[in-house]
Amino acid sequence: MLKKFLSVGVVAMSLLAVPVANAAPETSQQIPASFMSQKQQLEIQKKIDQINQKYGIGEVFSPEDAQFIQKYGTKASTKGSEISPSLDVKNDKWYFKGMAISNEKNSVLRMEGYAYVDLGVVNHTVSTNFFVKDSREEYHRKLSNSLHFTAYGVVGRDGFVKIADFTLYNECSNANFCQQNKSQDFSGLPVYYTLTPKSTFTDSFAEVDVPYSEMFKF
């Protein structure tokens, strides 16, 4: 099936699929959105996807791949060194939105909502509350929502590994609105994580992704 990627609106963050900035000023290695084009964002996300596909859970990353994730991922800990997890509970709340055009229906699909990353000492939860909606209330063969989450940790002295990698997904058939409220638990000691919200709509001739164009952390 032909798959097209179309987005509308001003890109406000510096990664298409990896959160890189906070609502409040905070020390960060990450590059501000104002210095990155959407093309650069797509290239960074493609690189992160390639890195994640190279390794299974617990497989040690190369130093170069580990450095890339550390540069563009979100720190799971704000205390101690970059590879030493905090024992404090951390609750991250992300807001995101995005738009895409349906040429077949002559309408705009809007995605908007929240993701929550609750990090405990060992046990953690990722949950969502977001939707995709047709601006003209036109019905589509299928609407779907997904949030891909990857958490990274360490093994041994300095081994960088994936400790969790999953997608929260739902879909609605013959619909003009589709909402996701899902959660998944994982365990371990994360030091970085990435998350990617996305919606998709399917019509007779195309499947179109609605990636986020704006994302920030409360």
Describe the structure concisely.
The chain has 218 residues and is mainly beta. The protein is built from 2 helices and 12 strands; from the N terminus they run βααβββββββββββ.
Describe the protein in words:
Helices cover 12% and strands 48% of the residues. The protein is elongated. The protein has helices spanning 38-54, 63-72; strands at residues 3-5, 74-75, 90-102, 107-119, 123-134, 140-155, 159-175, 177-180, 183-187, 192-202, 207-211, 214-217. It has 218 residues and is mainly β. The longest helix has 17 residues, at 38-54. It has two helices and twelve strands, in the order E-H-H-E-E-E-E-E-E-E-E-E-E-E. The strands form two sheets. Strands 1, 2, 6, 7, 10 and 11 form a six-stranded mixed sheet that branches.
